[in-house]
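As noted in the main text, all predictions were made from sequence alone. Below is one such record, for F420-dependent NADP oxidoreductase.
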Amino acid sequence: MADVKIAIIGVGNVGGNLGVLLARSGFPVRFGVRPGADVKALLERCGGQAQAGSVREVSAWADVVFLAVPANAAVAVAREAGDLTGKVGVDCNNPVAFDASGPTVLPVPEGSLTAALAKAAPGARWVKAFNTFGAEFHGDPSLSGMAVDVQLAGDDAAAKDTVAAIAKQAGFQPVDCGPLRNASLLEHLAVLWIHLAVKGGQGRQVAFKLLPRAAS
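Prediction:
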């Protein structure tokens, strides 16, 4: 699994932390950045295990392309990435707006942002994942002595298996949440997390965890 080449498009808190974690977990990582972007400090955090290049360059090189950009830019960035045919695309983004009551999901005509990406770049094998917790957990997946859950939704079983294996190697616990149509449920789950963290007083050091009942 460590020979899977990973591109991270987006070097904000989510993409940056996740790229550092994946690089330190043994994966070859390249960040897709705009010309002139200063990513020296980010690459130093990767301990020499990552590089940077243009969005198109790193997407062409990679087997798996993680998209961690503002939701309103995601479709345009996916198109900028070029031909993604056969590659696994991982949508880490959420279409969110805020009003006086807190966060809410922005409606997407296709049903979810992941479905919109699948329409814009149909050659890729899209998986919704890594979107239901804060950036702190993208850098450190430990949760009260357990691994934080990564919920996955997508229509390509092999693509989900690949993302699940990456997640597990990096210290997460993958949870298969069904087909691509369920990506919208994960976007709503993300908004619930934001509400609990920001409006509900829970803070950002919480995450959802699927736990079995102990055998009697």
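The chain has a mean pLDDT of 96. The chain has one domain: 6-199. These features were considered when defining construct boundaries for the mutagenesis experiments described in Section 2.9.
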